Amino acid sequence: MGRTRLYRNGKLEAEGFPVADVSEHVKDPSAVVWFDMCEPTEEDLRAISEELGIHELAVEDALQHKQRPKLDVYDSHKFLNVYSVRFDPDSGRLDVAEAAAFITSNALVTVRNSDHFDIGEVVRRWDDAPALTEHGIAFLLHGLLDYVVDTHFETVEAIDEQIEILEESVFGERPITQGDQRRTFEIRKSLVTLRRVVMPMREVVNTLIRRNDEIGDGAMAPYYQDVYDQVLRATEWTESLRDLLSNIREAHLTMQSNKMNLIMKRVTSWAAIIAVPTLITGFYGQNIPFPGFEHSWGFWTSSVAIVVVSAVLYRSFRKRDWL
Hints:
This protein is of the alpha+beta class. The protein has two domains: 253 residues, CorA soluble domain-like (Beta Polymerase, domain 2, 2-Layer Sandwich), CATH 3.30.460; 59 residues, no CATH class. It is 59% helix and 15% strand. A seven-stranded mixed β-sheet has the order 2-1-3-7-6-5-4. A hairpin with a 4-residue loop joins strand 5 and strand 6. Belongs to the CorA metal ion transporter (MIT) (TC 1.A.35) family.
């Protein structure tokens, strides 16, 4: 049903062993066990909770999706809920994968609601740092948090690149299209989701640092501090991008408004110019005698008046940058 690993005395001793053997290994104080469950049923979680003494509220939180990132501390264990994220630059949308973890003194149980949470990448990070395996649960938990926070930071970087493209489009020669507006909306929605995921991580990691005596010795403290620094950077970057995207959206609206005003000025100016010949020809179209009636010089007088007045208006509007 899930992946398993056994560390004993700081060494990887076994992996892929049957789930039924987990309870036996947990009884050994020199052993550290990791057990992964993907889309488990309620019965699966109830069974493992009985083996490890997991609080029923923690089990309920693991079953309920879309929990906020948090760290709940119980007497015999901790419950962790986190999210990994991945940004799609083509659509501007965010893929969010939830994972929970039960943390005891010598066991880590990860619970994923889908395969989108790449547990294989977490395992790779563990394998890349064999010198730290002696720190047991603190080492395993750090690998999990390091992967989660790295996905946050990579996503912020990817969104930043897309926002730079949007910035260039604001003052570019190409007109702002409906697709640009739609993309701005999608990225803004992704940033809102990312903020809900990233912001609570400060409290989660900070709590682990303050209670470091319970998750391992002080040798792992610098590694957790590094994760915390990454969380702070991702949080601050997310906030700044959120403000920047709001400014871009306002700039889009302002540019559209300015463009509309320019169009209205031009249309109004041309309408004023066209109104001159309409006025003059309408005046001479009256069925009453007027100066130049039935004489050719009357026609030429009206024609010259049309040209001169229209030219004067055109020059005046151009000088005011209305045309």
